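Residues pack. One example:


***
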Amino acid sequence: MSTREIDLGESAPLAIDLGADRGAQLARLLTPPAPVLVLPCRKHVEQSEPRRFSRLKLMDESPAHYEDGTVEETSPMRKGTALHAFLLGQKHRVVVYKGRRDPRAAAWQEFQKEHEGKCILIPSEAEPVLAMRASVEKHRRAMELLEGEQERRIEWDFGGKRCAGTPDSVRDYSAHRRVTELKSTLCAKPVRLIKRARWSHWHAQVAWYSEGLDRTMSYPQLPCEEHYVVAVESKKPFNVTTLRVTPEMITKGQKAWRAWWERLEVCEQSNHFPGYSEADIDWVDEEKSGLSDWEDEDEDAA
């Protein structure tokens, strides 16, 4: 067990006035201090990279998911990324490969090298992306909500740690600010979309960006009072729904990411990243527990 030392540098020797009761004072000075527990720290606690929401939300799965940090790219993720690029001024980042995405094929490997850093789609992915784009562009309210500063990276400090994020759209008014996120989903029917938004923690993501905008030096100081999600279906008829994230849900979202943050701090300091549970789990009726309404959709953009 190591302890931290205080380096006084080259400062002058400390003069101590023992006063009248020299014996008692000297005894107290020479008494060894009580041992201090210093938790071992992981090397990555030094934080070479800022914390981002996409990684932090893995804590909701388990600390083991966060430590692993692996998020495999899927076709829905590629389509979501391409949709963002088309609608948020980055269409040059999207290319279409007309062949077969085969890791063993030399043509595919060469195409990847030639277009490194870009979102590569195959024709079967490009077709629905273009349809989603057209649907959003025809939706007047959706396009209005996406106006503003688009995909501008921000950085800030929270709890002594560096953080970063890239809100999809930030619109500043004279006395307040609006934040909007663009999402693709299998179903944009309001009742199902709200359920999807809750399970995917969209409210926590918007609250995270709101916190960052309040703390960053990249934007003027304005309160974030409007929070929206523009959701478009990834299949026909590619309906669009605009979802206002209420102040109540922003508060819940903030509580969610802060709870992940606090647990992550404990995990890093203790060098222990457990899985789902280290205790026995009771098998209960799914309907009574509320687990039956869970839906697994992998439609978020990377």
Observations:
- The longest strand covers residues 224-233.
